[in-house]
Amino acid sequence: MHDVSHTQAHTQAHTQARPQRADARRNYARLLAAAEAEVAVHGAEVSLEQVARTAQVGSATLRRHFPNRQALLSAVFHQRIEALCALATDLATKDDPRTALLEWLRALAHYVASARGMAASLTIAESPDDAEHCFTYLATAADPLVRRAAAAGAVRADATAADLLTVVTGIALATEHHPSGAAEVDRLLTLVTEGLSPRT
Predict the structure, then answer these.
(1) What topology does CATH give the domain 3-67?
(2) CATH assignment of 70-194, among 1.10.1040.10, 3.20.20.70, 1.10.357.10, 3.40.50.150
(3) Which stretches are labeled DNA-binding (predicted)?
(4) pLDDT of 15-71, one tens digit each?
(5) Left (φ > 0), alpha (ψ -120 to 50) or beta: where does 160 sit?
(6) 0.90 exceeded by the pTM?
């Protein structure tokens, strides 16, 4: 099994680096929210100045928190990974295992589709193993959802979390520049998941 400590440590480092003053914490949160929105529109080449304008802070404030584009993209990327893992934990107690799994896969697909080259950009700039660690981290979080769905007979017994992440990522990347965007992701994901149930 792959070691996920690198991703966890990376995410924790971002958290620990956050300023402690209330106004600085607010600015940090606003910058991350603005960056995620701008990345969804412009991809990994998002303008730092535009992020600052969207967050309604000065460029100097942005640079204090994120000295360059890679630092900003990395913070957004790892925050979303953490959010997806937290969502998987929450959904693991949902009554309908199949619905819970599909809800998580849809959230993953929409995020990957909206990231628009961010993961590839980070893989080049950071450790070559970073993408693999993030993939493993997500697969570990999703595994209880997959096992619950399989135990309920809602998913084939031989389906793994890694399998589903690979399929969903492929759908998201294939529709990255599709004019219908999220709607096309939903259509293809629905098409694929019809084949997840065991054959009768």
Answers:
(1) Arc Repressor Mutant, subunit A (1.10.10)
(2) 1.10.357.10
(3) 47-66
(4) 444 445 888 899 999 999 999 888 878 877 888 999 999 999 999 999 999 999 888
(5) beta
(6) no
